[in-house]
């Protein structure tokens, strides 16, 4: 397996534009996580899905952020409209849903810059 | 929410063992203790996890206190490639995984 695949690797966009980040989890994994990492706030959990269903989205900063998982092999994180403070590295991770005893695999991340 | 406390940074000499501590005094009975590390410019990677007993794998060992309120990640022989931020997290039964600030490990040649 190629691991968790995120695209694009880098994104530069202007303030106010819509941004869509994509994630393909490892085949067979049924839990998927979106994280955001900045120097100031570290690695924050934004939302996670079990079996394509959002379980906890309390980390989503505001209504400008939305995430979907239409099927087991694809998820998106959308920011509309984007703002400079959204600049960060966004990571997607997947794992087999267990009782807290399975390991997660992370993608290489998408570095988002909003100017 | 159960939280973990780790030192901000630690230093080690190459080829020497490293003990990275983590306190998790509010851990609940079903929480697993996981360790991940993040190398520069990469996503986090899994290191080891455990529930009650000490664990060993090819990367490291995990020592868990009897009351489970603390744990220690042990790297038996640090190499320069082990320089990273190490995160200790508590994973809940519903797979909730939240990261703290971690410990930045510097390995000196």
Question: Which features does this protein show?
Answer:
heterodimer, A: 115 residues, mainly beta, 7-stranded mixed β-sheet, 11 strands, B: 109 residues, 4-stranded antiparallel β-sheet, 9 strands, 0% helix
What is the percent of helical residues of chain B?
under 10%
Q: How does the overall form of chain B come out from the CA principal axes?
A: globular
N- to C-terminal distance of chain A = 35 Å
What about the largest sheet of chain A?
A: 7 strands, mixed
Provide the structure class of chain A. Answer: mainly beta
Oligomer state equals: heterodimer
**Rg of chain A from C-alpha positions?**
13 Å
Give the integer mean of the pLDDT values of chain A.
95
Description of the molecule:
- Chain A is built from no helices and 11 strands.
- By secondary structure, chain A is mainly beta.
- In chain A, strands 2, 4, 5, 6, 9, 10 and 11 form a 7-stranded mixed sheet that branches. A 4-stranded antiparallel sheet of chain A has the order 1-3-8-7, with no helix packed on it.
- Chain A is globular and about 40 Å long.
- The termini of chain A are far apart.
- The model of chain A has no long low-confidence stretch (mean pLDDT 95).
- With 109 residues, chain B is mostly beta strands.
- Chain B contains no helices and 9 strands.
- In chain B, a hairpin with a 4-residue loop joins strand 5 and strand 6.
- At the A-B interface, strand 4, strand 5, strand 9 and strand 10 of A face strand 3 and strand 4 of B.
In short, what is this structure?
The complex is a heterodimer of chains A (115) and B (109). Chain A has no helices and eleven strands. By secondary structure, chain A is mostly beta strands.
């Amino acid at each position: 397996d190629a691991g968790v695949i995120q695209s694009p690797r880098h994104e530069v966009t202007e303030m106010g534009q819509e941004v869509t980040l994509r994630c393909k989890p490892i085949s067979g994994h049924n839990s998927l996580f979106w994280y955001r990492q900045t120097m100031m706030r570290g690695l924050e959990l934004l939302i996670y899905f079990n079996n394509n269903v959002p379980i906890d989205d309390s980390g989503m900063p505001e209504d400008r952020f939305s995430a979907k998982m239409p099927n087991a092999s694809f998820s998106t994180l959308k920011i509309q409209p984007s703002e400079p403070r959204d600049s960060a590295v966004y990571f997607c991770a997947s794992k087999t849903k267990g009782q807290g005893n399975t390991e997660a695999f992370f993608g290489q991340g998408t570095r988002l810059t909003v100017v | 929410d159960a939280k973990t406390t780790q030192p901000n940074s630690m230093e080690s000499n190459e080829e020497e063992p490293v003990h990275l501590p983590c306190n998790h005094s509010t851990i609940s009975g079903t929480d697993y203790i996981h360790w991940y590390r993040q190398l520069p410019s990469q996503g986090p990677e899994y290191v080891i996890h455990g529930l009650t007993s000490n664990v060993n794998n090819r990367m490291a060992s995990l020592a868990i206190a009897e009351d489970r309120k603390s744990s220690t990640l042990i790297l038996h022989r640090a190499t320069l490639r082990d320089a990273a931020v190490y995160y200790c997290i508590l994973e809940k039964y519903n797979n909730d995984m939240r990261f703290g600030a971690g410990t930045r490990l510097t390995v000196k040649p």
